[in-house]
Structures are given as structure tokens and as C-alpha cells.
Amino acid sequence: MEKYTAIKERVGKYKTMLDQVTKWRATWSKSLKKFILKEVKKLLDATDLVATVTEEEKIKGLEAITIRLGSKKSGIYEMADGGNERKDFFKEYGTLVYSQLFNGKVQAWMTFPFIEGLIEPRPPKLIGIYAPPEFNEDLIINNVETFLKDLIEWENYDDDDPNGQQRPQQIGFGMTAPEDEE
């Protein structure tokens, strides 16, 4: 029947997508998780970036790999108890996460640094969502580069210029003043 042609096409696409999801979910367990772990560890070794890599497997089918840069005393502290006791504020340095989604794709996202008890953390940032066949060494490298670029921007924060777009005007001897517009 011609009136069901469009629906039959959609049913076919839907069944194909369900099969694809099943294959992608199996790929995570069979090879993708191992590939991501291997590439991340290789990158960390090659760059001397210190991080803890953890496999999060508590919820099967939604597993994750976390690359956590750790935490330590921030250098900021509060004197308590009349100045006799020091309370240190700890800084979380950020995390890059590869987590499996319900549809078998994998999302890469990050958390930003923050100082516990002093600065509220920014919401996590989505770096990308990828089908398992998209994964390769270059994708992992690009994700880590994005992660580090955002960490550098956070560390170099300037409330007058949060996007790094404005540059100070040069002033001083030998510089010409802008023309007055009338």
C-alpha cells in the first residue's frame, strides 16, 4: 500500500539504527574501551602529563574512562580559631571523561578546575559525541588538546577579558594618540 511507504522506510531505518546501537555497545566492551585506555596512557607517558586514569564500571552499559588531573592545596587558606589553626582550600585540577551513552556512542566531556569551598565549579563542558568508528589516535589527541586549552584559559582568567579578545592599547613615547572624532 502506497500510503504506508514513508512509514515502512522509517521502520527500516529504525531497525537498522537499533542494530547499529547493539553493535556499537558491543564495540565498547570488545575493543573501544581498551583502545581509549591505551591511547590515553600513551599520550600521558609521551607528554609527562600527570593524571589518574580510572575505568568507571559501576553502571554496566554506561561505563566511563576518567582522566583526572588530581587535587592539592591551592595555596589559599583561612586562619581559624584566633589565628592558631590553618584551613587550606583544595584545588581540583579538572577531569576529561569518555563515557558511553545509551545509544552506543561515546561522549567526551570535561570538568573545569575549581577551589573547594571557595569557587563554585563551572558546569561540565561537552567536547564531542562520537560513534565508535570515529575513534582514532588523532581524535584522542584533539580531545586532550581541547581539554588543556580550556584549562589554560581557566588558569589565565581575566575578568576584564574572559575570552582573550581584547588587547591593551599601546601607550607611551613614540605612540600616536587616536584622532578625536567630532
Q: In a few lines, what is going on in this structure?
A:
34% of the residues lie in helices and 26% in strands. The protein has helices spanning 5-47, 137-155; strands at 52-56, 64-68, 71-80, 85-92, 95-100, 106-111, 114-115, 125-130.
Overview of the structural elements:
There is one protein chain. The protein has 182 residues and is α+β, with helices and mostly antiparallel strands. The chain has one domain (2-155). It has two helices and eight strands. It has helices spanning 5-47, 137-155; strands at 52-56, 64-68, 71-80, 85-92, 95-100, 106-111, 114-115, 125-130. It has a five-stranded antiparallel sheet, with helices on one face. The chain has a three-stranded antiparallel sheet with strand order 3-4-7, with no helix packed on it. Strand 1 and strand 2 form a beta hairpin. It starts with a helix and ends in a 27-residue tail after the last helix. The mean pLDDT is 88.
